[in-house]
UniProtKB/TrEMBL annotation:
Region (Disordered) location: 1-73
Low complexity bias (residue ranges): 51-61
Residue ranges with Basic and acidic residues bias: 15-41
Organism the protein comes from: Chlamydomonas schloesseri
Record's protein name: Uncharacterized protein
Species lineage: Eukaryota, Viridiplantae, Chlorophyta, core chlorophytes, Chlorophyceae
Length: 73
């Protein structure tokens, strides 16, 4: 065991361009002008996109089927 958890080894550090893109989308200003909490939000958004991308690759890129709660008769 290497101490890494749950397949997060495919993450890559954010580039300045990625930080700025997310900051512009979310807050309408460059990453360098954000306060600490806003920067944390940018990091969390980047992480959630990465996790979603990795999970999508593991499933072959197909969306998860919706579970139908009705029984088929």
């Amino acid at each position: 065991m290497t101490g890494k958890t749950g397949g997060h080894s495919t993450q890559h550090p954010m580039t300045q361009e990625e930080k700025d893109n997310i900051a512009q989308e979310k807050f309408g200003k460059p990453f360098d002008e954000l306060d600490t909490n806003e920067k944390k939000t940018v990091g969390a958004l980047h992480h959630s996109k990465q996790v979603g991308h990795v999970e999508g690759q593991q499933q072959g890129g197909a969306p998860m089927p919706a579970h139908n709660t009705r029984s088929h008769k």
